[in-house]
Amino acid sequence: MSRTLSCSITRSRPILTKCLRRYYASVASEEVNAARSYCSNLLKYKFQCSSKPPYLILSRQYDSPSFILQAFVPPQARDAYLALRAFNVDVARVADTTSHPTVGQIRMQFWRDTITSSLSGTPRKEPAAILLATAAEDLQRRTNGQSRLSKNWLLKIVNTREQYLGNPPYPTLGDLEIYSENTYSTLLYLTLQALPMNSVTADHLASHIGKAAGISAVLRGLPLVAFPPPPPTHHSSNAKGGPMSDGPQGAVLLPLDIMAEAGLQEEQVLRQGGSAPGLRDAVFAVATRANDHLITAREMLKNVTGGKDVGHEFEHLGDEEHTYASEAEEGSSKQLQEVDQAFGVLMGPALSTSLWLEKLQKADFDVFDPTLRRPDWKLPWKAYWAYSRRNL
């Protein structure tokens, strides 16, 4: 029976100056340019010829929409945009490229140390670290030390990723939302900081858009996690840390409460793939929550544009880093100006997530459908249209 995602859901079935000088003395412009090129190329979509099913060759598609949509990010924040997304890709790949949880934890500690060194002006010889340090220093210089990239937010991304190294299940859909807030929403907060932007309204929009993007990313990666590619032959253990037997063990990263409601069992998915009974129902329920966050963001934008209150309070107001020197009055022109300044950052993930959810709906919520892995060649045009009209 048909399921629909639309406007409504229906269903019928500060750094010291001496540190900055030390940084410039230690990193040549050639290294910065090389790091920028690496981070940009990392996000590109790369085709990989294979006789395997399409859902087994996802590892080469890192963040193609982010590569395309960087053109709409204000130039002064573009290095931060690339560095943050390359950092996110590198941290996310730890789970896919380690043979044992302990090794993964060591690599996560490496990234925590890398964050500290980059923000102190002495980056490691990692492209993402070099470009992150460049962006952090540039932000300090542009704002005379008044704005900075949050170390706490960067560490939150690493710590959250570390919690899911072994692909443990999300107990509830709410837990999946928390994961998305701590990763994808936080990535947007950091990008807004690089503008610089300190706006409760922009952060509020980023929270909803990030949740939608994070939930959709989990759905998009479900086939790869359920059917992971074999590890390199020199590995003696699989990606989950167990001994090699018949190959890596997959996992189904859908919230357990949703799986129970749909009557879906992990074993059935691992045996039957997309034809497992209840899988489409479970995917529909999770996709609906992602779509709900996009609907909320659009309603907020409409209210701000119309000079109205956004409609509800920001649930993270007063939390770590979510403190604002002077909140804009509700419905004020300053609010609208802030949203307009932040629009290029917010539109990208909102648009790419919306387009993917539309494709998922057309596939009747079969997350294994190969059309979901294909790049959207119309994305640049659609992004230009959305940016010009200020539509999410």
UniProtKB/TrEMBL annotation:
Pfam families: SQS_PSY. The keyword Membrane applies. It comes from the Eukaryota. InterPro entries: Isoprenoid_synthase_dom_sf, Squ/phyt_synthse. One of its GO terms (cellular component) is mitochondrial inner membrane. GO terms for biological process: mitochondrial respiratory chain complex I assembly. Keywords: Membrane, Mitochondrion, Mitochondrion inner membrane, Transit peptide. It is found in: Mitochondrion inner membrane. Coiled coil: none annotated. Gene3D superfamilies: Farnesyl Diphosphate Synthase. Belongs to the NDUFAF6 family. This is Squalene/phytoene synthase.
